[in-house]
Amino acid sequence: MEAPLLLQEPQNTNFFREAALESKKLWKIAGPVIFTAICQYSLGAITQTFVGHVGTLELAAVSVENSVVAGFAYGIMLGMGSALETLCGQAFGAGKLRMMGVYMQRSWIILLCTALVLVPIYVFSPPILKLMGETSEISDLAGKFAVWMLPQLFAYALNFPIQKFLQAQRKVMVMAVVAGVVLVIHVVLSWLLILKLKWGLVGAAVTLNLSWWLVVIGQLGYIFAGTCGQAWSGFSWLAFRDLFQFVKLSIASAVMLCLEFWYLMILLVLTGRLKNPVIAVDAIAICMNLNGWDAMIAIGFNAAISVRVSNELGAGNDRAAKFAVVVVCVTSVAIGVVCMALILITRDNFPYLFTSSSDVAKEVSKLATILGITVLLNSLQPVLSGVAIGAGWQALVAYINIGCYYLFGLPAGIILGFKFDLGVQGLWGGMIGGLVLQTMILLATTAWTNWKKEAAQSERRIKKWGGSVGEE
Length: 472
Fold this sequence. Notes:
This protein has helices at 15-51, 56-81, 83-93, 98-123, 125-131, 136-148, 150-168, 173-196, 201-224, 243-271, 277-314, 318-345, 358-366, 368-377, 381-391, 394-419, 423-447, 451-456, 458-466. By secondary structure, it is mainly α. α8 (173-196) packs antiparallel against α9 (201-224), α10 (243-271) packs parallel to α16 and α15 packs across α17 (423-447).
């Protein structure tokens, strides 16, 4: 067994110079990915912001649809698409570019089928939300909005495999450009349709669906233009071969990430059972909105470290993969500290960016401390998840998440929130306990990893999960 990762220094070169070089490599990937993630997350967040000025009930409905219904689908789609981070990343590192286009097509097939399976959840979301404890008023309006958002579901199915395909090749600037242009269009259309023309929720649905499909079309146009070389050689019937192992890895990836996405989604649902649920749901939705924006930074580093680890393991460079993990963890945590400080300093002011209600704003201010702690934890946890994806540990992390989140954190939150009558603070505080435990276990797992062994297993993983194409 190797000595702990965090206790080892690079050999044969100056530590700080190597750290600076690695940081440059990470930021070349993370910077555009962070910008892309913020832009795409902002599509839903900006929609909520505009709807928040229409009415509190409308804000609650859109927040529940975005966080619960679309959040459920988003987690599954992103998770299953993340299988490509392992396969495409390691294939790119090994120089097996032709396999990448086939892998993306396999992922499209799997995710489009998954989208069809998820359609009934959108259609029957009102009774599902009521069963989960939401009020009839919020559930009915959120369910109506969910049906209008079905086109977004199929945009997810195409978008996430495309992004992982481009990220593995480090073609992240085109994603950033497309996302930036679409965000500008989205803001203008949201103002025009929701506020100016007073279309309300109909305008929100039209704008949000259109924006997500513009993202897909823009990225596909770049790929089909022949800019990816051997990685995209056109559609192939090989995409329908050896789907079983690919599905297994996709499911493991989905379970791993969904357990994380649903964890905070459950917090929003449980909040609906508290006293004065509209105010409570609006307050927690605003906090989740802000936390989600901050999490986009960590997601950028998640993607960057996943690409770095998978590329280096695919190329057999175990030491480079190991050192990249150290640099990205230090960088992300430093940013998390700054973001936490900003939240605490502006706790009495930032709520009014999202609501005109003083009652909601006061409730958000009370949650600022616990929001800041969550932001700090989320600066490290997604990075460690990115290491797991790059190395192919999805199944292991899924088991860790079940234990930490659902056997420890969730019960603790319910006890504190309802038994001890601590409300939202209790619910959220208990669930943070699960996040702390999970982060500590992932940190220990990463620190004691035998990276030489991981690099040696890279070729075997590609053959196992990628099927016969990987043997060519």
